[in-house]
Amino acid sequence: MSEEQKNEQVVDLTKVTPPTQPKSILVSREEQKNYESESQTEDEEDDEEDDIDNENEPLPTEYPGTVLPDNHPQEIDADVDLASGFPDDTEYIDLIHLKINSLEDLHLERFNKIEALCLRQNLLTSISAVKHLPAETMEELDFYDNRIDHISKSVAQLVNLKNLDLSFNKIKNIKHIETLTKLENLYFVQNKIKEIKNLETLQNLKNLELGGNKIEVISETLDKLVNLQQLWLGKNRIAKFENMNNLVNLRVLSIQSNRLTKIEGLDHLINLEELYLSHNGIEKIENLENNTKLQVLDVTSNRLTKLENMSHLINLTDFWCSYNKISNFDDIAKQLGKLPELDTVYFEGNPVQLQNPTAYRRKIKLNLGPSLAKIDATYIRD
Hints:
This protein is largely without helices or strands. 11% of the residues lie in helices and 10% in strands. The protein is built from six helices and 14 strands. The longest helix has 11 residues, at 357-367. The chain starts with a helix and ends with a strand.
């Protein structure tokens, strides 16, 4: 903006009363407070930790100045109108980022053939109204990024669900899903869950995502999910591998950003293909003798000082080892040099790279086999 334009907008605040902001159907802060206080009515007795409500946080600083009216405000339909455009026989409803705070106002009872409901990025605090959905047809429920603090018992009646996403909410306890025995994909990313429980009956589960919670222990519950193929536990507080002996079908295990210090307890994961262990306190690569199907191994940002116990991983294509303390090219050659499928390696931030960055790439290439195509995200030139 030019100085002339700035000067033209200067207003004498002593003579002008700031105009009233245009009224819109957008939810106000006060309305939302009232709604949230009224919606805390369901079963919450087993929640152990009290949260500090978002509304108690200090409001953003307001700087002095005149509020200029918006002559073309963007309005969002009231909740009651948002689903009105869908015919009664709709099979898929998708209402994303629309500030919906009342599931009841959508009148879901009229959709008797619906199979999937997606209400991502809204303001929902309660999902008890799912009781109006037809249990015989519902297969997918997506409440990613709302303000839900507990799982309603009404969810239990949706026994044909295959996909349930409750990520990025405020849930503390896994409950009321024991009857959902057809679930294949279950997402609880970024909640406030402390314990893995009430999952034993979900024998068809293939993908379980629990990253970004407060989990400290891999409980015995997990060991009963024998058909699990992907398990995501990143950004928790887990200090030890345990209770995974029966997960023989597991292909992907992500346990990044936890409190691990040792690789152990993976002996029975004979079909494991991808193992993500970055940002832990691991000091040694070990106990992978039975994991010969590994294709991706990520040990970025740990405490490794040497490479060892890897020469048997003949299916390895990607080895990510940035930001450790690897200083010996001979170890790299011995452990990785004869791996026939190795395509990509990362050693950035290790002494082998920091001490001689000019010759580093050339030495890596000389010490590894002809299959190598990429070093630290950069393709090798012929």
